[in-house]
Amino acid sequence: MSLIGKKAPSFVAPAVINGEEIVEDFSLSQYVGNKEVVFFFYPKDFTFVCPTEILAFQEKLAEFEKRNVAVVGCSTDTENSHLAWLSTPKDRGGIEGVTYPIVADVAKTIANNFGVLGGHYDYNEEGDMIFVGTPIAYRGTFLIDKQGFVRHCVINDFPLGRNIDDALRMVDALQYVEKHGEVCPANWEEGKEAMQATREGVASYLSTHA
């Protein structure tokens, strides 16, 4: 079930912050009323596509921060695995230099509640609980507004890396809508014209962009 328009699921979990410190009680609630959040899931530490995404978010971090947006990553690895990966140089497959928080969802409850866990729990014929699928997170990206509501999400399968620039574009769109009360048409980017959410406004926009 989609989380769009709903409160983002709450959690308290361990995380690595500033690339070097483990905290046991990290929560997105610290941002409510203050910042939007781009909360993203990735499958596993020490893999191949994942570091390209994590480092790409770091490269754009100043752009997100300029917009008063927090970036937070999450996978089902342990906080110790996160810390080891964060301490490994890039030329050795690590993500050294990443400073935004990375959450450890060891119990897989966060991924499950956000609808990105790659499978589900079931029972076999003997009545034993089993996991069907792959018990790690898909590449889910969630844009959460200052009130804690999910306003945008996209979920990619394991081999499909996400577009960080589009995550930034959606931040711009959300902030534009909230500031100006207009809506953003197809392929909208910062600096382009938006339109009024009325029949007349749509007709006017289409007449000048046909």
C-alpha end-to-end distance? 36 Å
Number of helices: 6
What is the share of helical residues?
25-40%
The main sheet comes to: 7 strands, mixed
Strand tally is 9
Organism: Rhodocytophaga rosea
GO cellular component, one term: cytosol
InterPro entries: AhpC/TSA, Peroxiredoxin, Peroxiredoxin_AhpC-typ, Peroxiredoxin_C, Thioredoxin-like_sf, Thioredoxin_domain
Keywords: Cytoplasm, Disulfide bond, Oxidoreductase, Peroxidase, Redox-active center
What features would you describe in this structure?
This protein has two domains: 150 residues, Glutaredoxin (3-Layer(aba) Sandwich); 48 residues, no CATH class. Helices cover 27% and strands 27% of the residues. It has six helices and nine strands; from the N terminus they run βββααβαβαββββαα.
Tag the structure with descriptive keywords.
210 residues; alpha+beta; Glutaredoxin; 2 domains; seven-stranded mixed β-sheet; two-stranded antiparallel sheet; 6 helices; 9 strands; 27% helix; 27% strand; globular
